[in-house]
Every structure is written in structure tokens, then in C-alpha cells.
Design a protein that fits this description.
Blueprint: H1 2-20, H2 25-40, H3 45-49, H4 54-72, H5 75-86, H6 94-107, H7 112-129, H8 134-147, H9 155-166, H10 173-194, H11 197-202, E1 210-213, E2 216-218, H12 221-230, H13 238-244, H14 253-271, H15 276-290, H16 292-295, H17 304-323, H18 325-334, H19 339-354, H20 359-375, H21 382-395, H22 403-411, H23 417-445
Antiparallel strand pairs: 1-2
Helix pairs in contact: 1-2, 2-17, 4-7, 4-15, 4-17, 4-22, 5-7, 6-7, 6-8, 7-8, 7-22, 8-10, 8-22, 9-20, 10-21, 14-15, 18-19, 18-20, 19-20, 19-21, 19-23, 20-21, 21-23
């Protein structure tokens, strides 16, 4: 038991140090994995490194590299302009469009990180260009992906439903699906209101530019008059004002090729189930070969500090799993005499572990721990508990230590990285603490 308590305490100490000092938590986590794994777990270096998340590392490198290429050749800016035109200049609609697309992708079978990896860079590029709170935009994408994650044909839904069916427990596939969508939708609405969405709703729609001659665009005079008459700055910021003056030029051949690459990324990863890290890196390299001079800086734009942070913490969590700390906590909770209290604590454990590790692994390992007391005819509703457990274990993927949160952190533009990381960490901690209690009360107690 002592080694489990020490390993958890070391993880907490890392949080404190990384919060107080501008030290990369990933570096601390690698040192912690070495010391704890060697001194407490008697693990050789090879076993410690077995917890290194190579797939996550490749995903983060490949995605950030590919979208650095797309940013450098102007494709992201071009896509942003098309998005503005598609919604008639209503900037406030864009966060919800991103939420909806991410939800649709996961509901039809996309892995949540794959959907976020595709949508987040475009959404955050849009946020940077039109002065939208990047935290709101990134969180809308993640909550959208998690909202659609428990449809009967989704990855999370399939895993959860198979475990429940195998255990012989009552099964209601749509109850879990609608619980996830409803909770994430409500959270997204709250984020939209709290993080600047009302300002976007009050802002006038961006007018479409009208051609004043070959290659020339004019601003809609009424809009200019409204701003001048009001005697105020553009409510969407100077970047939006500048964007209005840009001519609506068609994309270049290289930009069309880049869009084709992004479409190929979606098709190959979502339909053919190929690894998103390898695919994104391959497409990025092919685009770089077309214009090597233009893209030579792309590799330096990969978010190396954020990648170091994520893979370091994941490696430490891998050491904790090998030492049996995660299983120890889960079994200790499940052994409680009160089924209601056991259900609450299992939701907490699922949320905390999932904030650092794979939500899929959490669902597969913690739900079976609840089977004994659910089968004993306790007052705990199996359907309600499964819904609470499922949502608790996935809604926390906004944490910067999870793949989804890491993708948001890596693709945020025009922000202080350390400050943005802290905001994500605070929000992730808040969700981890509050969500299990609210979900337990809503789906288990009530």
C-alpha cells in the first residue's frame, strides 16, 4: 500500500511544482517515472519506457506539423474565410458548427482524438483570426466530440455496451448516448455564455465583400457607416476589420492540394481506420516536398514543449498502472459497503484516471469493478450508473494531459502557452471534481 500512496503523492507534487514554477511538467514526470519505477517498483528502464505513449507522440507531432504546413501556405486562412461566408458572416455560429461537426464524427465511429485532431486546428485558427476566445473554441470542439461519443455505433458506445451486455446487466444504449450528448451540450452552452459568446451574438454580421473590379473588393458601405457612426472599434477586433478588406480570392493550386490532403486525412483515419499519426505525418511530408522552401519552418512550429508535457505525464501514469496503483484504488473503492458511495467514488476514480490516461481503457477496466454490487440487487440503477460512469470518464478529456486537451493546447494560436495550459488545467480540474458529483446525483441518486 505504501508504494501506491507514494506514487500518488509524487504525482500531486508534480502538479504543485508545475503550477508554482515555470517548469515543464513532462520533464518532472519523466524523472518521477524513473525514480518511482526504479526505487519503488523495482522496474528496469525498459519496463518504464514501455509506458511511453508512442502513438500519442506521433499523433501530436504529425497533426501539429501538418497544420503548420497548412498555416504557412495560407490554407487555414482561406478555409476560415470560406467558413465566414458559409454562415453569412455570423461569427457566433462558428463555435456551434465546430461542436456539431465533432459530435457527428464521433457518433458515426470516429475515435474522439481523431475528430478533435481534424477539427481543432481549423477551429483555433478561426478563433485567432476573428478574436474569439481560444479556450472557448477549443473546449467546444472537445465537448462536441465527447457529446457524440456514446452512440451505439461509436467507439465508446460499443465498448461500454459490450461490457454491460457481457455482465448480464440491463442495457439501454440510447440512455447513455443521450446522457453524454445532453450533458456536453449543456456544458458547451455554459462555456459559450461565460467565455465571450454573448459578445459575438451582439456583434453585427460580417458583410460579404463585393467585387469592385478584377481582383479588387470593396467593403459594404452600410457596415462602415455603422461602425463610424457608433464611434467605436470593430467589436470583433482589428483582425476582423482587416479581414473585411481582403478580396475573396479563390485558393491557389497548392491550397487546393492541401485541402485535398486534409480530406484524405479524414477519410483514411475515420473510414479506413489508419493511424492518424502516420497518416498526418505522411501527408505533411508530401506537401513539404511540393514546396520545400515555403515549408522549411514548419517543423520548428511543432509544439514540442506541449508534446514533452503530455508524453511525460503519460509515461508516469504507465508506471503507476504497472505498479498496480490504478487497480488498487479502483478495487478499494468498489469494496465499500455502501453501493451509493461506491458508485460515487468509482465515478471519481474514472474521472481522475481518465484525465491522464485513455478513456477507453478506463471504461474497460472500471465498469467491471461495479458489476458485483450492481448484480446484488442494490438500490443503484445499473442504467443510471453506467450513464454516470461513462460521462464522468470522458467529459474530463478537456484536461491538457489527455489527448483531446493536448491537441487543443498544441494548436492554440496567439496565446501565452503557459497561461493557456494553466487555464486548461484549472478547467480540467474543475470538471474532474464537479462532474462526477453532478452526474452521480442526476443519474444514480435521482
Amino acid at each position: 500500500m505504501l508504494q501506491h500512496i507514494v506514487s500518488i503523492s509524487v504525482l500531486g507534487l508534480m502538479f504543485v511544482i508545475a503550477t508554482v514554477l515555470p517548469v515543464n511538467m513532462g520533464a518532472l514526470a519523466f524523472v518521477g517515472a524513473f525514480l518511482v519505477g526504479t526505487l519503488l517498483g523495482a522496474m528496469p528502464a525498459k519496463s518504464i519506457l514501455a509506458g511511453f505513449p508512442a502513438d500519442l507522440f506521433l499523433t501530436l507531432v504529425g497533426i501539429t506539423y501538418l497544420f503548420a504546413v497548412a498555416q504557412n501556405n495560407g490554407t487555414i486562412d482561406w478555409l476560415v474565410r470560406q467558413a465566414v461566408r458559409a454562415v453569412g458572416g455570423r461569427i457566433a455560429a462558428i463555435p456551434w458548427i465546430m461542436f456539431g461537426i465533432a459530435a457527428v464524427l464521433t457518433s458515426v465511429g470516429a475515435v474522439s482524438p481523431a475528430a478533435v485532431a481534424i477539427i481543432a486546428p481549423i477551429a483555433l485558427g478561426f478563433a485567432a483570426k476573428y478574436n474569439i476566445n481560444p479556450l472557448m473554441m477549443g473546449l467546444m470542439v472537445v465537448h462536441g466530440a465527447q457529446g457524440g461519443g456514446f452512440s451505439p455505433i461509436s467507439i465508446y458506445g460499443g465498448i461500454t455496451n459490450k461490457i454491460v451486455e457481457k455482465a448480464g446487466l440491463p442495457l439501454n444504449e440510447m440512455a447513455t448516448a443521450f446522457a453524454s450528448l445532453g450533458v456536453n451540450l449543456l456544458v458547451a452552452l455554459g462555456l459559450f455564455v461565460a467565455l465571450g459568446g454573448m459578445r459575438l451574438l451582439r456583434a453585427p454580421a460580417l458583410p460579404r465583400t463585393v467585387a469592385a473590379g478584377p481582383g479588387v473588393a470593396a467593403i459594404d458601405p452600410p457596415f462602415q457607416a455603422r461602425v463610424a457612426t457608433a464611434g467605436m472599434a470593430d467589436p470583433l477586433g482589428p483582425s476582423a476589420t482587416a479581414a473585411r478588406a481582403e478580396a475573396e480570392q479563390p485558393g491557389t493550386p497548392y491550397q487546393y492540394l492541401t485541402v485535398l490532403g486534409l480530406v484524405a486525412l479524414a477519410v483514411l483515419t475515420l473510414y479506413f481506420k489508419l493511424d492518424i499519426g502516420f497518416v498526418s505525418l505522411s501527408i505533411a511530408v508530401l506537401l513539404t516536398l511540393v514546396s520545400p522552401n515555403l515549408q522549411k519552418a514548419a517543423l520548428t512550429q511543432v509544439s514540442w514543449p506541449e508534446i514533452m508535457l503530455i508524453v511525460g505525464v503519460s509515461t508516469y501514469v504507465g508506471v503507476m498502472e504497472k505498479m498496480g496503483t490504478i487497480a488498487f484504488v479502483g478495487h478499494s473503492v468498489a469494496g465499500l459497503a455502501s453501493p451509493l458511495m461506491a458508485a460515487l467514488l468509482l465515478c471519481f476514480v474514472g474521472a481522475v484516471v481518465s484525465a491522464f490516461a485513455s478513456s477507453t481503457a478506463v471504461l474497460g477496466s472500471l465498469i467491471p469493478l461495479a458489476v458485483p454490487f450492481l448484480q446484488q440487487g442494490s438500490d443503484v440503477s445499473a442504467i443510471g450508473f453506467i450513464a454516470a460512469m461513462a460521462v464522468s470518464s470522458t467529459i474530463v478529456d478537456v484536461s491538457p494531459f489527455s489527448t483531446n486537451g493536448a491537441l487543443v493546447l498544441a494548436n492554440a494560436q496567439g496565446v501565452d502557452r503557459h497561461a493557456f495550459f494553466r487555464k486548461l488545467m484549472v478547467y480540467g480540474a474543475l470538471v474532474t471534481i464537479v462532474a462526477p458529483v453532478v452526474l452521480w446525483f442526476a443519474f444514480v441518486v435521482v
